[in-house]
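Sequence design from tokenized structure. All designs in this work follow the same two-part layout: the structure record, then the generated sequence. An example of the structure record is given first.
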């Protein structure tokens, strides 16, 4: 019996030491990824998730959402059970929600929200939820694609549209 207890204690100590080493190694790799190996990607991802695109257009909100939905050319609703893809989660006359994910999970979600303001429409596009892998924002190219297509779609609708960016400390 005493031998069994000693075995359990030794196993717990060894397991604990291995767990601490792994935690330290993972933390070191995360820092190396963010500051050395993938520094550019880290900065690019942090900028994307902490920047809001503010929109001021003469077009009506419903026209803007219609143009954006056509311009991004994404399916409505999740299409894949496992493989992640871009799709429009919800769309109304004043809001369009984009998702990168599958039925299993979501990698990021972004939202374009518009409001009438006198004879103009003001809106904001933000990335509201995202995932990271080893400290690096996942799916940067897809995030850039959606933002670029939103800008192009609204610009095609109203050449006088004004875009401005603002940053927050939420990244």
């Amino acid at each position: 019996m005493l031998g069994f207890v000693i075995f359990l204690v030794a196993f717990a100590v060894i397991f604990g030491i291995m767990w601490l080493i792994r935690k330290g190694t993972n933390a070191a790799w995360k820092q190396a990824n963010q500051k050395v190996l993938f520094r550019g990607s880290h900065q690019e991802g942090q900028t994307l998730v902490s920047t809001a695109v503010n929109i001021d257009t003469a077009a009506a909100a419903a026209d803007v959402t219609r143009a954006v939905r056509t311009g991004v050319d994404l399916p409505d609703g999740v299409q894949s059970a496992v493989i992640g893809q871009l799709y429009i989660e919800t769309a109304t006359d004043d809001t369009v929600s984009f998702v990168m994910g599958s039925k299993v999970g979501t990698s990021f979600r972004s939202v374009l929200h518009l409001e009438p303001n006198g004879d103009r429409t003001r809106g904001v596009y933000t990335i509201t939820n995202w995932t990271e892998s080893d400290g690096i924002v996942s799916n940067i190219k897809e995030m850039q694609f959606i933002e670029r297509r939103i800008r192009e779609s609204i610009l095609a609708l109203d050449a006088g549209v004004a875009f401005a960016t603002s940053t927050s400390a939420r990244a």
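The radius of gyration is 22 Å. We note this feature because it recurs in several other targets discussed in the main text.
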